[in-house]
Every structure is written in structure tokens, then in C-alpha cells.
Amino acid sequence: MFLNVFKNQIILGVITIILTWAIFMSRAMPVFFIFYNIFVLSVIWVGFSRSMQPINFKLSPKSFRRKIFWVAFVFRFVYMLWLLLLWYYYTDTPFSVEAIDALSFHSVAVKLADNLSWESLFKIKGFSLDDSLYPFLISFIYAISDNSVFLVRVAQVIVSSFSVVLLYDIIRVIDTDRRGRLSAIILAFAGSIVFYTGVHMKETLMVLSVFLSMRSGIYLLNGRRVLNNSLLLLLGLFFAIGTRFVLFFVLLSGFFVYTFFVNQTRIRRVSWFWKILIVLFFAGGSYFLVGNTTYGRYAKQQTSNLLGLEKKSAKIRTSQGRAKAFSSRSNLITTVAIAPITVPVSFLTPFPSITYTNINYATRVQQTEQWYHIGNILVLGLLSYFLFIGLFYLFKHKKYKSYSYILFTFFLYMAALIVSAYLTSIRFNIIKLVLIIPIIAYGIDNIASKHLYRWKYYTLLYCVLIVVWNYLKLARLGDV
Predict the structure, then answer these.
(1) Residue spans of alpha helices (H) in 242-354
(2) Can you tell me the distance from the alpha carbon of 48 to that of 183, in angstroms, rounded to the nearest whole number?
(3) Contact (CB, 8 A) for 459 and 383
(4) 29-49 burial, b for 16+ CB within 10 Å, e for fewer?
(5) Backbone angles phi, psi at 316, to 5 degrees
(6) Is there a contact between 407 and 398 (Cβ–Cβ < 8 Å)?
(7) Rounded CA separation 230/409 (Å)
(8) Is residue 373 a part of any domain in this protein?
(9) Dist CA 163 CA 300 (whole Å)
């Protein structure tokens, strides 16, 4: 029943994308991307529907772990090869169009491969701590493979597939095996996460840091292999520091919060010393994050900018001299940002971006990349209905304690997005997207016929929001 309704929702979503493209045809993506995303949606649907068959829920845990790893691996490997062919077709290189960050990581890794050391990394100007780990790690692959981009992508496929298994282990421990399998299946075919296995970006490593930290922390607090999981927890947090500092902060905060809610029969009660330490950590960490980091200073300046572009530095490249249109519409953006709708909309972002704006690339907005994500975002956008269902039942069933590590990390990271300029950025939403997957799985596992009936109304609203978002994207820059 669920799969049949889901198929109809996807069809409605595809129709919306085509209509939006037709409405904004003069400012819409090339028609190739319509066919590309329909193809991606078809592959995701086939893989997802086959994986949701009852036989996969009857396998032993060991057999399921092995199967879901290889399912995820095959899907990611084929996706990676497909993207590689596209990159070579468009650019004659293994890198995508507008791959500024990817080429930067690649060039740094090539230099490091000749002299593997942290000192060499820190001598390279323009690289911060949370950009350092990814090029440093791939430089090891370059050093033994003559700078093979393909082997780096294969390594990312393996890492991303392993993350699927980690999520299964997490939910299996804190909840039920069935919900763990549902979560793993959704993550296995989450196209936006899979996409980053085919580019030289750090998002795949960030997803690993999230699930490795959570799995190790949960296992540690449940008394499983204390030494091993302590080391793995530190490794996961180290990955977070080396990829995005705010991620380290929210993961460590989530771990501390989970210690309050963990089953006290399995672990000794947290002492007042640790509780005081946690309060000091939150206070000190918040002060440092907001007041003394580049991210924090930038976030404070951009609190009112919901739609994700810098108001002051963005420049419009147009022959008609409409640069003033941007500033004249900035009040609209501020109004939207401070409205109560900001928080509920943040659950749904990013939206499929079908249009392009006349923005100077100096704003670092990679518009072409957004079009590869349309089908992937549409799937999670449609499933976000079950995010709200899942949150409702988690609190109704009093399961929020078991999910506190995931929930607190999710809400804290989303708060960071809301006060930043990156609420609609796909890259910055990747962590949020992986964190909602187990909540969506909980909602799906608690669906009733009334929920499926109301899902169509939610889908209609979501489709309207897609059109509105693409209109606002153009209107705020004077392009319509």
C-alpha cells in the first residue's frame, strides 16, 4: 500500500518539476536535466521498492548487514561511474562543471602526496582546520596510485556504503531491528548523499563521522566493548573536527545529552561533576562558536537571510543593469526570514531548484550542481511527511529518550542552519538529511490508512512550495 501511494506521489512530483520548468522556461535549467532526474528517480524507485520486499525483513541481522552493504555499494558505484562519464563528456576531466572546491581539494592533495605531513598541509594558504582532513586523507591514495581520481571515488563509495551499515546498527540498538532496516534502505537509496561519492568533496566523510560517532557513543554507553568504542568515538569526532567544526560541536553535544537519557540500568548514573562539565561545555562552546569563529561571525551577519545568498556581496550580472533589484527586494527576504514560517520551512529545505539566476559566480553559488539533485531532493521531500509523523509518534510513544542522540544533534544542527546563510544549500543540508532518515523510518513504521490519505494533500502543498521557491529565487534578484 505504501509503495503504491509513494509511486503516485513521485509521479506528481515529476509533473510539478516539468510544469515549473515550463513556467520559468527562459530561466530554467537545460531540458537534459529533466530526463536525467526522471532516470535517477526511476532507478531509485526500482531499488527502493525491491529492497522494501518482505524477504529482506526476514533475513538474519548478519545476512541483512552484508546484503544492504552490497546493495548500497552497487548503487553508489554505478552512480559514481555515471557521473564520471558525465563529467568527462562536459569537461573532459573527472571533475564537474564549476567544481571550484573539488579542484581545490584535488590540487592540495596532489601537493601533499609528494610530501605527506601535517606541516605541509598547514603551509598551504587559504585552508582552515575544517577543510584540512579530506585532502590529507585522499593524498595517501594519490601517493600510492599516481594521483588516481577514480580510486578516491571508489574509496568514497566504500565509505558511504559502510555508513549505511552503521545506521542500521544504531537503530537496531536503540529501537527495533525492523526500523533499523527501514532506515538503512532509505539511506542506501538517498540520492543526494550518494551524489557526493562521485565528486571530490568532504560530505561523504562528514556522514561517516556522524554515524561512526553515534554508533560508538551508543555502544559505549550501553557497555559494549568500552575501549574499542571509546577509540572509535574519538575517531569519529576527529573526522568531524577535520571536516566542519560546527558538526563536531553538535555531535559532542548530542553525546552528552544522550548520557542523561540512556537506560540507567545499563550504565551508572551520570555524576554531578559530569553534569556541571556539560553545562560549561555548552556555555563555552556556544560562546566560541558564535563569537570567535568565522562561521559564527558570518552566521550572526546573515541571520535574516533565509534564502541563502549574501545580500551585500552578491552581484547581478545582467546587460540591463538591474543590480538595484536585488537591494530593493532585500526587505522581502528579511520579512520572510523573521516570520514564524522560517522554522517549519527549515524542515523541508532544500527545495528542488529548477531555475538559475543571473548571479556573478564570485558569490560561490554552484547553480549547475543543484540540477543534479532535483530528483534526489524530491524523494526526501516527499518522504518528509513521515518526518512529522515520526516526530509525533516518538514523543507519543515516549521513545524520544532512545532517539535523543539523533534528535538533539538534528535540532542543534538545524538551528545552526537557520541562523546561517546556508539553509537552502544542498551541501550544508546533507547532515540534516541523513539525520532525518531514522525519524522518517519511524514514521513509516507507524503509518495508518489515514496517514496515507493525508499524504496526498501534503504532497500537493510541497509541490506548490517548489513552484513558489523557484519564483522567489528569481524574484528576489529581479529576474522575473
Answers:
(1) 245-261, 272-291, 294-301, 324-328, 330-338, 342-346
(2) 12
(3) no
(4) beeebbebbbebbebbbebbe
(5) -95, 125
(6) no
(7) 19
(8) yes
(9) 33
- Alpha-carbon distance 131 to 242, whole Å? 6
Average pLDDT, the chain: 80
Burial 180-195 (b: 16+ CB within 10 A, else e): bbbbbbbbbbbbbbbb
The length of the chain, given as a count of residues: 480
Q: Which residues pair with 28 in a beta bridge?
A: 355
Could you tell me the sign of the dihedral formed by the alpha carbons of 14, 7, 193, 150, in that order? negative
What's residue 282's pLDDT?
53
Q: Is residue 480 part of a domain?
A: no
Distance CA 75, CA 250 (A): 30
pLDDT grade for 193, boundaries at 50, 70 and 90 = very high
Question: Which of helix, strand or coil describes residue 425?
Answer: coil
Residue 352 included in any domain: yes
Contact 121, 127 (CB under 8 A): yes
pTM for this entry: 0.84
DSSP state of 25: G
Per the listing, cell 605531513 goes with 117
Highest mean pLDDT among 39-43, 241-245, 281-285, 476-480: 39-43
Angle between helices 404-418 and 426-445 (to 10 degrees): 140
Q: How far is CA 52 from the centre of its chain?
A: 23
Do the Cβ atoms of 431 and 206 come closer than 8 Å? yes
Name residue 407's amino acid.
Answer: L
Q: What is the pLDDT of residue 367?
A: 65
pLDDT at 276: 56
- What are the contacts of 451-455 at 24+ separation with CB within 8 A? 451/389, 452/1, 452/2, 452/5, 455/5, 455/9, 455/385
Look up cell 529518550; give the residue.
401
DSSP one-letter code for 351: P
Which range of residues forms the domain containing residue 339? 2-475
Position 221 scores a pLDDT of: 84
Q: Is 183's pLDDT higher than 60?
A: yes
Closest by Cα among 214, 216, 178 to 407 = 214
Q: How many domains does the chain have?
A: 1
Compare 367 and 314 and report the one with higher pLDDT. Answer: 367
Query: pLDDT for 76-96, tens place per residue?
Result: 999 999 999 988 888 888 888
**Residue 172: inside a domain:** yes
pLDDT at 314: 38
Alpha helices in 123-225 (DSSP H): 133-145, 149-174, 177-188, 191-195, 203-221
Residue type, 155: A
